[in-house]
């Protein structure tokens, strides 16, 4: 999971049996500590927590084991970070061509789009309608968040080359 914050998606995946690596910015030690605290609270003390900064190739990024799915919960928050996020995702997908980046985001402005950046980095996205997995309710899991905000989900993967 990239941009893990309090690590909810990664912790849920780990509790369901997935092998998970949590990551957040190496420049934000309090975020990494939040990840570790979430692991301890949820009885996952051995879940790896890595400091990875978007847009930066680090030894930790280079040494990651093969991955299938990259989770990102609301990482598209600040437009100044969008290209760094997609640079990191592109690197991970190039290293793991069958992997996908599953992300949710809250629509904050009609002015921002990642479409140009997706094209630049040879990535494609598929919109996942929330109703397709019954997540379009006004109240979900005792939260009014879905009803008061426009939440979107997409799956990003490598775009196919012209000859394939």
TrEMBL record:
Keywords: Methyltransferase, S-adenosyl-L-methionine, Transferase. Pfam families: Methyltransf_16 (PF10294). GO terms for biological process: methylation. Coiled coil: none annotated. It comes from the Eukaryota. GO terms for molecular function: methyltransferase activity. The keyword Protease does not apply. One of its GO terms (cellular component) is nucleus. Belongs to the methyltransferase superfamily. METTL23 family. This is MET23 protein.
């Amino acid at each position: 999971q990239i941009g893990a914050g309090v690590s909810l998606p990664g912790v849920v995946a780990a509790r369901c049996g997935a092998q998970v690596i949590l990551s957040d910015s190496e420049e934000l030690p309090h975020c990494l500590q939040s990840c570790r605290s979430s692991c301890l609270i949820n009885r996952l003390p051995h879940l790896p927590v890595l400091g990875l900064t978007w847009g930066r190739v680090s030894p930790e990024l280079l040494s990651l084991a093969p991955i299938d799915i990259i989770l990102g919960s609301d990482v598209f928050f600040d437009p100044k970070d969008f290209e760094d996020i997609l640079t990191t995702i592109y690197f991970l997908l190039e290293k793991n061509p069958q992997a996908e980046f599953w992300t949710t985001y809250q629509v904050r402005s009609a002015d921002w789009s990642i479409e140009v950046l997706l094209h630049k980095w040879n990535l494609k996205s598929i919109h996942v309608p929330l109703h397709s997995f019954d997540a379009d309710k006004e109240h979900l899991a005792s939260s009014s968040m879905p009803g008061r905000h426009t939440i979107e989900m997409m799956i990003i993967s490598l775009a196919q080359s012209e000859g394939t």
